[in-house]
Amino acid sequence: MDLQSLIPELLKGLANFSLGNGVMILAALVLIYLAVFKEIEPVLLLPIGFGCLLANIPLAGMTAAEGITGVLYEAGIKTEMFPLLIFIGVGAMIDFSPLLAQPRMVLLGAAGQFGIFGTLILAIWLGFPLNQAASIGVIGAIDGPTSIFVATKLAPELLAPIAVAAYSYMSLIPIIQPPLMRLLTTQRERLVQMEYTPKPISQRTLIFFPLVLTLVIGLLVPEATPLISMLMLGNLLKVSGVVERLSKAAQHEIINISTLFLGLAIGATMTAADFLNLDTGKIMLLGLIAFALDTVAGLLFGKLMCVLSGYKINPLIGAAGISAFPMAGRLAAKTANDEDPNNFILMHAMGANTAGQLGSVIAGGVLLAIVSKLV
Q1: Is the previous residue joined to 226 through a cis bond, with omega within 30 degrees of 0?
Q2: Which domain holds residue 190?
Q3: How many C-beta atoms lie closer than 10 Å to residue 222's C-beta?
Q4: Is the dihedral of CA 359, 360, 365, 370 positive or negative?
Q5: CA pair distance 239, 268, nearest whole angstrom
Q6: How many independent structural domains does the chain possess?
Q7: Is residue 270 predicted with pLDDT exceeding 90?
Q8: Dist. CA 143–CA 127, nearest whole Å
């Protein structure tokens, strides 16, 4: 074979390169830029961006069944293993003491899930079938693993845009939430100081909490058992105090490796054929609406609690009733502190934030239970 006959073979990648490939590679580079230079959720956006880059190199074979990203998808996404492993790590990082000391924060965690169901209704109105609408609505959980878990079961064809929307909006919390906080609360409300007298939570209580919660949620909403059990397993590793190595592994090696592989596998589904369509744009918009509805509902319920308590509850903690732990809790506390440097509501906000984490898992399980029987 001479050199002239080899040239077409060497250039076959370019010969099969399409405008769609170019657009998606540009999108991949934007994600990588945001991760590296703007430090926006780099742990997530960097592998997703690189996976998208690989998926749009023609004839590379990376996303085929025998390719590395194809193998990762089959082994970790279709089986839901990666989201569940990530939940073990998340559980090992969470401290439920603020929630156990302030059980009323559960109400804010419930209010913070309103965007899921409101967006589901809106998605149906826009023409999405029920299974897809439910998967899109779960973006409102602001919880990547839950969104991926539900989408994999109900609408795997929408997994890529749903995952990108969930993680993108989670990274944009510091941009999206503060304007809504200032718009929906008065200065008087933002200045409300909340006393925090820590109630001693015994280790026995901390140990029984994940066990009891797993049993209760598992029996009431069996579809939520995989998510809640892995979250509680991680927390049990932490609070038991007898498996420090496993707790540290869950918080570092396990969650980091799972996140890397999940990001690559999700990014590799972002092909031009599957991603460049009108539905993707609708999903991104609906995801933003879901996030906004969550924040608005949490703030409005916080305002109600503020009034009913005689201005003893700062409504800003309502914005923390979403699943993005600990970012949402810290942001609510920072907003109050910016208004008054002597105002410290961090522990209250963390109580609402951990309640939101639990609320998103339960909401995802409820949707799975209902939709799987209707479709």
Answers
A1: no
A2: 15-374
A3: 12
A4: positive
A5: 37
A6: 1
A7: no
A8: 24
